[in-house]
């Protein structure tokens, strides 16, 4: 009994340490600006910071931009990544080199690509456009998601496709009717990861975006003005930015656990 | 009309690596053919080539007189039962069985009828709406069978379907499969590395090694007349005893000298093997042909008991006789002590002789 209480105290402490900064941001977003730096926990509660963010800073637009770009890039990438990953897993397409190249592209620092991308996109008129940003995010996500999905497909026994194909399905039919449904948890997990990656991306959003196409991370950064950091607005913005990630985390937890254990179903 | 013909079939992986090489085999309509061999012998590859899941790089495969060598699996009208069962995990038992019929656009009421029938034959009725993950190994095995049966294919292909089951269940399923085959009467190819399955289930067995066929024949025929030492040793446990031997002749009498077992051959064997006098030979005798009681024509020899496995219905005994260790299948009442010196009788009427260098059997026509 005593040991259980002790371990609970330890766990509560650990959780507090992890959660405290996030809770403090939430607290700061909910108190009036003049109380932002006070040590009082909740002197009074207001939604003014949120209101200001939307009324004065065009945050609603930024939020929509982020949602559109992150969702679209995942929607564009997933079918391509699934097919490429399957080809790598089953047909050894491109051999070791293609696999290595896929992984190697992840090792390049993004900033090395930022400038060339900017030049290219400026020439074809894709700067300051959500389409341009979507293309970049899709390109960033593709190798990463391909790699993850390849792993999931490799974990699926090949006999499943053999069974489907002798049962009368084409190779495509076996992929569509058997492999994809079986890999669904893994595919969901990969999609959520891709979404988070795009949602959080800052560098390309900053360089390629303009005032109309700024995403949430860029908008948050712009709150650090020459008049100092508007901490109450930043806190409100961060709280909202975390929201989809919380939802995604809930999802990914469920699917990742399933995704990692689905190979055991034979 | 659903015989299978393999004509000089090969699977070349490149760089001189062959999974299967120049295999020719005819499997008759309605026959239960067992492909038997150690792992890596090409038996599963052969099965997968018949199914179309493995590319045939050379030769022809025909099913029901139709050349299927280059046809996709779905056009061959074969059903495969995999070792892993390969049930679709996201579908219920019913959907698993229905999948193949749906792909082939079997009418819905016919689908229902076949599923109901297969479920009743296999005792799957209570589980039709369960997912495979909620079934035991034996039940999954039945679903895999059911999925194959409802398709009503020309040919059943089974790739070690029993090896994931525990021993008791395996014995039961063995008998059920044979019954099922008798009832359905479809041409079946059954891959296994288990000689008991091969002996008990096959109409004929085809023993393979290193991608080639060693011998094809009815189980008892192959057992009685193994073509070489590999077949002789693979088709039984304990494996056939093999002892280096020579024959010598003096007048009508042909004498065997096989280490501990030495003496004149019986008349019939003497006539048969006279031509091999002086050759380097291997003398083969199955464990059950070494007796614990004297018998006319049986050659006595002595050995020291080193291993005794009392199995219940019988005892397996290993004795050291000279330099040789010899396996003996004795009845359950014969229980020597370890280290005891016992007298055994080699029944030469059932002896085998092989060429020492090639391992091929010295022909005997009986």
What is the 3D shape of chain A? Answer: globular
**Physical arrangement of strands within the biggest beta sheet of chain A:** 1-2
| Overall pLDDT of chain B | 92
Write down the Rg of chain A.
Answer: 23 Å
Order of helices and strands of chain A: HHHHHHHHHHEEH
Helix-strand string of chain B: EEEHEEEHHHEHEHEEHHEEEHEEEEEEE
CATH class of the largest domain in chain B: Alpha Beta
What general outline of chain B do the C-alpha atoms trace? Answer: elongated
Distance between the termini of chain A: 42 Å
Provide a concise account of the structure shown.
Chain A has 266 residues and is an all-alpha fold. Chain A folds into two domains: 1-46, no CATH class; 55-264, MetI-like fold (Orthogonal Bundle), CATH 1.10.3720.10.
What is the topology?
The complex is a heterodimer of chains A (266) and B (366).
Chain A: H1 2-30, H2 48-57, H3 59-91, H4 95-104, H5 110-123, H6 130-154, H7 158-166, H8 171-200, H9 203-208, H10 216-221, E1 224-225, E2 228-229, H11 231-261
Antiparallel strand pairs in A: 1-2
Chain B: E1 4-14, E2 17-27, E3 32-36, H1 43-51, E4 58-63, E5 66-67, E6 78-81, H2 93-103, H3 108-122, H4 137-150, E7 155-159, H5 167-184, E8 187-192, H6 195-201, E9 204-209, E10 212-217, H7 219-224, H8 229-234, E11 241-250, E12 253-258, E13 261-264, H9 267-273, E14 281-285, E15 290-291, E16 298-310, E17 314-321, E18 324-331, E19 341-347, E20 352-355
Parallel strand pairs in B: 3-8, 3-9, 6-7, 7-8
Antiparallel strand pairs in B: 1-2, 1-4, 4-5, 9-10, 11-12, 11-14, 12-13, 14-20, 15-19, 16-17, 16-19, 17-18
Helix pairs in contact in B: 2-3, 2-4, 3-4
Protein name (chain B): Sn-glycerol-3-phosphate ABC transporter ATP-binding protein UgpC
Organism (chain B): Roseibium aggregatum
Pfam family, one (chain B): ABC_tran
């Amino acid at each position: 009994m005593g040991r259980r209480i002790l371990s609970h105290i330890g766990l509560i402490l650990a959780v507090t340490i992890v959660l405290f900064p996030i809770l403090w941001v939430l607290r700061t977003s909910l108190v009036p600006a003049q109380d932002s730096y006070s040590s009082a926990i909740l002197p009074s509660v207001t939604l003014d910071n949120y209101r200001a963010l939307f009324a004065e800073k065009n945050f609603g637009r930024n939020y929509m931009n982020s949602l559109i770009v992150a969702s679209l890039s995942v929607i564009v990438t997933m079918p391509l990544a699934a097919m490429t990953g399957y080809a790598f897993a089953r047909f050894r397409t491109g051999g070791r080199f293609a696999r290595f190249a896929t992984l190697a592209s992840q090792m390049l620092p993004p900033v090395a690509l930022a400038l060339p991308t900017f030049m290219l996109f400026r020439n074809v008129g894709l700067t300051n456009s959500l389409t341009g940003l979507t293309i970049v995010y899709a390109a960033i996500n593709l190798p990463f998601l391909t790699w993850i999905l390849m792993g999931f497909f490799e974990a699926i026994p090949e006999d499943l496709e053999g069974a489907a194909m002798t049962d009368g399905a084409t190779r495509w039919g076996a992929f569509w009717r058997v492999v994809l449904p079986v890999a669904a948890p893994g595919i969901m997990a990969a999609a959520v990861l891709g979404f988070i990656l795009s949602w959080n991306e800052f560098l390309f959003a900053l360089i390629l975006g303009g005032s109309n196409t700024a995403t949430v991370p860029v908008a948050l950064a712009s709150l650090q003005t020459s008049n100092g950091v508007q901490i109450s607005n930043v806190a409100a913005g961060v709280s909202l930015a975390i929201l989809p990630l919380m939802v995604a985390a809930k999802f990914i937890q469920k699917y990742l656990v399933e995704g990692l254990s689905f190979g055991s179903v034979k | 009309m659903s015989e299978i013909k393999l004509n000089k079939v090969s699977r070349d992986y490149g760089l001189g690596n062959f999974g299967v090489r120049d295999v020719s085999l005819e499997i008759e309509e309605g026959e239960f053919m067992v492909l038997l061999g150690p792992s890596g012998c090409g038996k599963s590859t052969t099965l997968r080539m018949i199914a179309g899941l493995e590319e045939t790089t050379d030769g022809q495969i025909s099913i029901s007189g139709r050349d299927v060598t280059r046809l996709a699996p779905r056009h061959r009208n074969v059903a495969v039962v995999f070792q892993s069962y390969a049930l679709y995990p996201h579908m219920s038992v019913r959907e698993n069985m229905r999948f193949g019929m749906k792909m082939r656009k079997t009418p819905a009421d016919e689908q229902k009828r076949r599923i109901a029938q297969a479920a009743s034959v296999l005792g799957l009725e209570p589980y039709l709406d369960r997912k495979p993950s909620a079934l035991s190994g034996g039940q999954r095995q039945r679903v895999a069978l059911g999925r194959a049966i409802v398709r009503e294919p020309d040919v059943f292909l089974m790739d070690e379907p029993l090896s994931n089951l525990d021993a008791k269940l395996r014995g039961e399923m063995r008998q059920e499969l044979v019954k099922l085959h008798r009832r359905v009467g479809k041409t079946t190819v059954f891959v296994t590395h288990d000689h008991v399955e091969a002996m008990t289930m096959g109409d004929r067995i085809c023993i393979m090694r290193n991608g080639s066929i060693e011998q094809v024949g009815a189980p008892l025929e192959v057992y009685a007349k193994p073509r070489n030492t590999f077949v002789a040793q693979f088709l039984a446990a304990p494996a056939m005893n093999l002892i280096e031997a020579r024959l010598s002749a003096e007048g009508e009498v042909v004498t065997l000298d096989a280490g501990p077992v030495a003496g004149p051959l019986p008349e019939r064997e003497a006539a048969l093997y006279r031509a091999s006098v002086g050759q380097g030979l291997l003398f083969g005798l199955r464990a059950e042909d070494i007796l614990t009681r004297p018998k006319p024509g049986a050659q006595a020899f002595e050995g020291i008991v080193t291993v005794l496995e009392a199995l219940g219905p019988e005892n397996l005994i290993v004795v050291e006789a000279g330099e040789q260790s010899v396996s003996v299948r004795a009845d359950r009442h014969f229980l020597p002590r370890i280290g005891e010196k016992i007298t055994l009788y080699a029944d030469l009427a059932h002896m085998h002789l092989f060429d020492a260098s090639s391992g091929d059997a010295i022909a005997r026509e009986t």
